[in-house]
Amino acid sequence: MDTRPPSLEAVTALLDLEEFEVVEAKEDRKARRRDLVLVPRLTVGLCPHCRQISQDRHACHDHQVLDLPMGAYSTHLTIRRSQFHCRHCDKFFTPPLASLAEGTHATERLLARLAELVRHADVAAASGFFGVPEKTLEKCSRAAAGYGSATWRT
């Protein structure tokens, strides 16, 4: 049996978030946790102020995000988000990423699945299923409520 870790290309394909590429992957078998570092595939941004394309990166910040579990492992993503400077209007901006739920530390697909699960159970059950602390999921509850008329119980 081959025990080599999968290539980053294979992990990127398995993760299936089209706008990102995995550049680092770590696994903690004892904690049943995978930590993945992702970078956006696009290296330019569209300025929301003047609608011009900019490739001038001003800064890069790491953003911690939860995603759907992979098997029995919780999936923790570190997204390297670039802030751009637009030369046309002299403003700074960070382009939105479709896979990330704005104002949360979760992917859109995690919030959608969480809302679906909570409609049939509660936050404690969802916490056990996703392998993340209950308090973390409670913080996502307001955002997930937008995915349906879920009633949150703790």
Please write out the topology.
Blueprint: H1 8-15, E1 20-28, E2 33-40, E3 45-46, E4 53-54, E5 57-70, E6 73-86, E7 91-93, H2 108-120, H3 123-130, H4 134-145
Parallel strand pairs: 2-6
Antiparallel strand pairs: 1-2, 3-4, 5-6, 6-7
**H-E string:** HEEEEEEEHHH
**Uncertain parts:** 148-154
Structural category: alpha+beta
Tell me the span between the first and last alpha carbons.
44 Å
Q: Summarize model confidence as the mean pLDDT.
A: 84
Give me the Rg, rounded. 17 Å
The tally of strands reads 7
Q: Work out the strand percent.
A: 25-35%
Q: Oligomerization state of this entry?
A: single chain
Descriptive account of the structure:
The protein has helices at 8-15, 108-120, 123-130, 134-145; strands spanning 20-28, 33-40, 45-46, 53-54, 57-70, 73-86, 91-93. The protein is of the alpha+beta class and 154 residues long. The chain folds into 2 domains: 7-100, no CATH class; 102-145. The strands form 2 sheets. Strands 1, 2, 5, 6 and 7 form a 5-stranded mixed beta sheet that branches. It has a two-stranded antiparallel ribbon with strand order 3-4. The longest helix has 13 residues, at 108-120. It is globular, with a radius of gyration of 17 Å. The chain starts with 7 loop residues before the first helix and ends in a 9-residue tail after the last helix.
